[in-house]
């Protein structure tokens, strides 16, 4: 680094599923100055989670420790820039709520609930509330007001009220100990600004609108009688939420002296109202009317904006909600997505790695035992790790040589349920067409194709509902790291896909909001114009493969209809 010529630096903090990322950005041109990543310590060990039960919880200490870790890394590598940071904004996964006491402290930070999963943050992909979501949907359809109308007409087990209802029924003592519930994206700004009163909370329009059925036309949240039918505790929690929500171009508060010291930042800088990662990521990816931004990671979120309510808001069925100002203030933000995308590939990798991790050490140990020498455990671990790093590139290379339709294998991407179109977390993945000649690369390619078909179903739903899509842009780890995945998506959609040239597009989007609350730009539109990244490449569809995939997509729809009928 050659110096700090610009005086306009901002910080974007991005809390993903597995890690926290912090990026120092030059607000004048959006260039990344420095970045750091830290895994969540307890999450990395698999604590408090059970994939078999679809239970995924994260301890608030993971969020604190990872934030301090990334900021310490930045202090060591780019400390001279931190002193000139003018603002900070934070995005998180969602819906990821947690029960808190009257001082906004997550219950898991209290000694009596330190290791209680129900006192922790309920991660977005936790599906323990599937039955509760079904109940909310049945009641909403019978009620005088359908509170799911702006949620795509279907409420999901991934969302706020379903999760709280599940906790109220399965952990009543924990819920009774709580004064309220906070989304992760709301807790972080509260923590950093020293906000300890519910009366001073500024809840995210993005979070509450998309996941908690907040809407101006409802006067806030669902009425007390509706929530009372579900569980009395929901009424009490609703009353703690207030009636207002805030867009992320607004200041939540100022960074406290304590947290300024812990994060190596100037005290008193503005902290923006929080939002979900995909929504801020869409801003970082250049979302605008007609431009769909695909945030591609463990799951996908497909984001687009449209005219504001005064211009005639269009209700879109089967998506993850539409909220005025949730992405860009003044425009309606539409969200869709897939509950599993990169997670599908990670599942297949874990499947293939099982014998390497479980059988190889025992086998090597047995051989060395017969030879009278001690098994080299360090070498075995190193070998396993090396295989782990090579397996996905090898699979991708082999799968790329397989022509569409050649293997005869067809898969469904619903390994973590279906988010869009029409949320249904009871659905399961499926694979058909297996023979004794089916290989691992064939299966891997079928899984990639399945996730691409899921993407097409989302695009088609938007267009069927009248939301025009003129361009598709992609951001996230999968978008930049897997050419085969991106080519397959382009072929299945038969559309070009623009790949955004930013390693940390989501954090960049957060940085844009930080630049607005810092007063560097008057609006998100102005911040986007100045800070937006370039398009590094355009993936063009292969017309020949697109024709084949058009036929296979129809088979995917038939398989999906059959599986859905059998499971529901």
What is the element layout, followed by pairings?
Blueprint: E1 9-15, E2 19-26, E3 32-39, H1 41-44, E4 57-58, H2 60-82, E5 85-92, E6 97-100, E7 121-122, H3 130-142, H4 160-170, H5 172-176, E8 180-183, H6 184-193, H7 205-211, H8 224-230, H9 232-239, E9 251-254, H10 257-263, E10 270-272, E11 275-276, H11 277-284, E12 291-296, E13 300-306, E14 322-324, E15 332-338, H12 342-370, H13 377-399, E16 410-412, E17 430-432, H14 440-464, E18 471-475, H15 477-481, H16 483-493, E19 497-500, H17 505-517, H18 524-531, E20 535-539, H19 543-567
Parallel strand pairs: 1-5, 5-11, 12-18, 18-19
Antiparallel strand pairs: 1-2, 2-3, 4-7, 6-8, 9-10, 12-13, 13-15, 14-15, 16-17, 19-20
Please characterize this protein's 3D structure.
With 568 residues, the protein is α+β, with helices and mostly antiparallel strands. Helices cover 43% and strands 17% of the residues. The strands form six sheets. A seven-stranded mixed β-sheet has the order 14-15-13-12-18-19-20. The protein is globular. The N and C termini lie far apart (58 Å).
């Amino acid at each position: 680094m050659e110096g700090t010529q610009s005086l306009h630096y901002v910080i974007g903090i991005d809390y993903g599923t597995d890690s926290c990322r912090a990026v120092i950005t030059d607000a004048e041109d959006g260039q990344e100055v420095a970045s750091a990543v830290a895994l969540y310590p307890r999450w990395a060990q698999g604590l408090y989670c059970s994939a078999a039960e679809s239970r995924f919880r994260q301890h608030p200490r993971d969020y604190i420790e990872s934030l301090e870790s990334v900021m310490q890394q930045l202090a060591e590598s780019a400390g001279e820039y931190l002193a000139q940071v003018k603002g900070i904004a934070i995005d998180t996964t969602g819906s990821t709520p947690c029960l808190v006491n009257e001082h906004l402290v997550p219950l898991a930070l209290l000694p009596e609930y330190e290791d209680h999963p129900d006192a922790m943050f309920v991660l977005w992909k936790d599906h323990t509330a599937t039955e509760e979501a079904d109940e909310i949907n049945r009641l909403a359809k019978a009620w005088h007001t359908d509170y799911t109308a702006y949620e795509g007409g279907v409420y999901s087990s991934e969302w706020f009220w379903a999760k709280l209802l599940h906790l109220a029924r399965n952990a009543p003592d924990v819920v009774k100990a709580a004064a309220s519930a906070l989304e992760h994206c709301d807790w972080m700004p509260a923590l950093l600004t020293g906000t300890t009163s519910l009366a001073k909370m500024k809840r995210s329009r993005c979070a509450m609108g998309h996941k908690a059925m907040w809407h101006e036309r409802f006067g806030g949240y669902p009425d007390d009688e509706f929530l009372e039918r579900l569980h009395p505790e929901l009424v009490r929690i609703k009353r703690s939420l207030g009636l207002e929500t805030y867009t992320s171009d607004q200041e939540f508060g100022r960074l406290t002296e304590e947290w300024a010291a812990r994060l190596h930042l100037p005290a008193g800088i503005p902290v923006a109202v929080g939002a979900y990662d995909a929504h801020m990521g869409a801003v970082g990816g250049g979302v605008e009317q007609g431009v769909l931004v695909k945030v591609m990671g463990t799951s996908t979120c497909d984001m687009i904006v449209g005219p504001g309510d005064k211009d005639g808001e269009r209700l879109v069925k089967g998506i993850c909600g539409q909220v005025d100002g949730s992405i860009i203030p003044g425009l309606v933000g539409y969200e869709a997505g897939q509950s599993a995308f990169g997670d599908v590939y990670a599942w297949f990798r874990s499947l293939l790695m099982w014998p390497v991790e479980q059988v190889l050490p025992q086998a090597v140990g047995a051989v060395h035992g017969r030879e009278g020498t001690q098994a080299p455990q360090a070498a075995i671990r190193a070998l396993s790790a090396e295989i782990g790093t090579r397996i996905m590139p090898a699979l991708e290379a082999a799968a790329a040589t397989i022509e569409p339709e050649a293997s005869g294998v067809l898969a469904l991407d619903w390994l973590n349920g279906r988010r869009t179109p029409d949320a249904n977390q009871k659905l399961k993945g499926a694979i058909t067409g297996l023979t004794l000649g089916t290989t691992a690369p064939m299966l891997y390619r079928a899984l990639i194709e399945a996730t691409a078909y899921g993407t097409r179903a989302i695009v088609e739903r938007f267009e069927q509902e009248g939301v025009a899509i003129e361009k598709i842009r992609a951001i996230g780890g999968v978008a930049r790291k897997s050419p085969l995945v991106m080519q397959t998506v382009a072929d299945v959609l038969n559309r070009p896909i623009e790949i955004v040239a930013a390693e940390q597009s989501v954090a960049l989007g957060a940085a844009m909001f930080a630049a607005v609350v810092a007063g560097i730009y008057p609006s998100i539109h102005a911040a986007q114009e100045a800070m937006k990244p370039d398009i590094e490449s355009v993936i063009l569809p292969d017309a020949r493969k697109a024709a084949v995939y058009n036929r296979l997509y129809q088979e995917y729809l038939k398989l999906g209809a059959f599986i859905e009928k059998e499971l529901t």
